[in-house]
Amino acid sequence: MKKTLACLHAHHSNIAYIENALSLYDIELLHFVDPALMQQVTTNSAFTIDDAKHKVKEQLEWIASCHVDAILITCTNYIVILQEHTVSLPILKIDEPYFECICNIQSPQVLLFTNPATVSGTLSRLHQYAHEHQKNIDIEVKVIENTFDLITKGHKSQYDKTIYDYINTMIKEEKVISVALLSMVDASKKVDAEIINPLDPLIKTIVDELDLKEKEQTT
Question: Is position 216 within any domain?
Fold first, then answer.
């Protein structure tokens, strides 16, 4: 029977990455997009962390009622807010497979971001993950300034080029480079070097968790 994966996004731009990466597999994807939560968290001082936790709990329960087999959360800030929940379905978090890759590297690394608002939450979860798995990591964080607005306004080609150019200036530093956001994956794959990204390990985790089979090829 075909599996159904529900995806909770903070921005619609993440949908295409998941759709394209899973297009070879026999799976139905159901997307839920809510940018308002992070907007409230970052701009509304009256909106408390308890309000945010309650909202995420409501969202997950609503999604779970749609008869899906698992839920994928593609926003790290959502994951940071998520605490205990009453959903019995598997909840896949975009950052954990990525963190596993990072924590298995002993040499110095650079994590690249375009959205400054995601840095604190990502690093907090990364260091927590490393501590829980007894891993020592040597991490430097860099933000590609004044870039994230390009993708939110629909200027993807310009966004990708900015990231591509920035990564190419860093390659000579001979450090392991990672991009921390799904929106950065396309640009990173164009670079003539191995760049770690959150998408590839995530897809492997989804395929293994849901025991997905590749679609039969038709001629």
Answer: no
